[in-house]
Amino acid sequence: MEEKKKKTQWHNLLLLLLTLNIFTTAGAFDYSDALTKSLLYFESQRSGRLPYNQRVAWRDHSGLTDGLEQGVDLVGGYYDAGDHVKFGLPMAFTVTMLSWSVIEYRQQIAAAGELEHAMEAIKWGTDYFIKAHTSPNVLWAEVGDGDTDHYCWQRPEDMTTSRQAYKIDEKNPGSDLAGESAAALAAAALVFKESNPHYSHLLLHHAQQLFEFGDKYREKYDWSLGVVKSYYASVSGFKDELLWAALWLYKATDNEEYLKYVINKANSFGGIGWAMTEFSWDVKFAGLQLLASKLLLEEKHKKHSHILKLYKSKADYYMCSCLNKNTAAKNVERTPAGLLYVRRWNNMQYVSAASFLLTVYSDFLKTSNGKLSCHGGTVGYEEVLSFAKSQMDYILGANPLNMSYLVGYGPKFPQRVHHRGASVESYRENKGFIGCTQGYDSWYAREEPNPNVLVGALVGGPDCKDNFVDRRDNYMQTEACTYNTAPLVGVFAKFSELEVQENVDQGQNLDLVASY
Ligand SMILES: *[C@@H]1O[C@H](CO)[C@@H](O)[C@H](O)[C@H]1NC(C)=O
């Protein structure tokens, strides 16, 4: 009898340990650590005069004469990827997504001790947008150009390439750029509303002017600015950005006029017409549709519920296609190991942006007590969230190569990121000038790992078969962009909160083990 009881006890303990083991493996990723690292990345991308509290120590001041030739102060902002062009459209989208992350997950970010850093990352962008918006209908759109920049491989601190600045204005308008910049500034105004009302008000003022400019002079910015064409052409046009900007402005001001814009132009601007399977720096429809869906939660929007529901049906479509629950042809492809796959070049940007929308959508379903109805079945909020988690876990190392595509996270991550500053020895250590082609000869072509770790960067990632080649010249896979990491800030924050809850549960289980 005694023997049998002991056996049962041991059996139970074993079961418990097994469960714990499964649990530990499943929850093996440290999302708080990932969150901290993702915010560090924005410090690596800083252009301009670095502040005293700069934590990424291998970087130094750069681009200190940006705009000088044109008689305008364009010092600051972010380098967009592995080069040193300051491209307005992707930079603005980066700031919109950082701001949206804070708006949705402020508490979680604060609980992880990262709110200050997140707000600094946003402000580094918005301070620059304010400088670049020199009069109501003038916005400086780009500093440097892709062609001359890519001819050189230099540290930002040594830059000798053209720093020509380009602008949009009444004669050369760009509604997509003005719209996205307005969206970024309006979203950031919400972030700073409580902590810095004066700054928030300033952001809003610029946002409103930029929206007006973009709406009044309607044109695609790459039509006005040939220089962006082969780098960041706005393929989806400007209607998505104008609707998106109007909606962010409505959220930031509560001014009904902006809401009316979103409702009245829903049809003519494609807001309820386009069903999308991509959300990116170019194509905002899915984000707009989700944001519009969330207005349904508030009683005061009841009179617009007809149009808002049409927006929601398109948001649903996007979520269903990510979840593989539309008809087959309308689903987002996946790699054999389950990573969303949109295209070969920098696929991870679509994964991180999709994961953000799925995470926010999951919260929306939970709050509204709703279910997602797809062609292939009905889905609850847990399933949506758990799919987003699968994408995060793939990024952090749950993939066939055991590779974390978030640089600096975990034991194995890309060592040869296609990034000028990271791949050349630090300026802080060696201030000797490194020339344009010298960088290619001495640093780009090296087999060795980069001397500086670009912590928190999300690289382009694997191909459609989960393969990844860690070479500096494999820029489709090893280059990182600011808009890859920005949505991760929100998603990591969400999962870091769940992690804390799980650790509490696990603690209780451990108590149980101890009692044996
Ligand atoms: C990945 O990790 C698993 C489990 O530890 C191991 O079996 C597998 O060989 C690893 N794969 C690679 C490519 O390192």
Automatic annotation (TrEMBL):
Gene3D superfamilies: 1.50.10.10. Its EC number is 3.2.1.4. PANTHER family: ENDO-1,4-BETA-GLUCANASE (PTHR22298). The keyword Magnesium does not apply. Keywords: Carbohydrate metabolism, Cellulose degradation, Glycosidase, Hydrolase, Polysaccharide degradation, Signal. It catalyses: Endohydrolysis of (1->4)-beta-D-glucosidic linkages in cellulose, lichenin and cereal beta-D-glucans. Residues 1-28 form the signal peptide. One of its GO terms (molecular function) is cellulase activity. The keyword Signal applies. The active site is at residue 418. This is Endoglucanase. Pfam families: Glyco_hydro_9. Belongs to the glycosyl hydrolase 9 (cellulase E) family. One of its GO terms (biological process) is cellulose catabolic process. Residues 31-491 form the Glycoside hydrolase family domain.
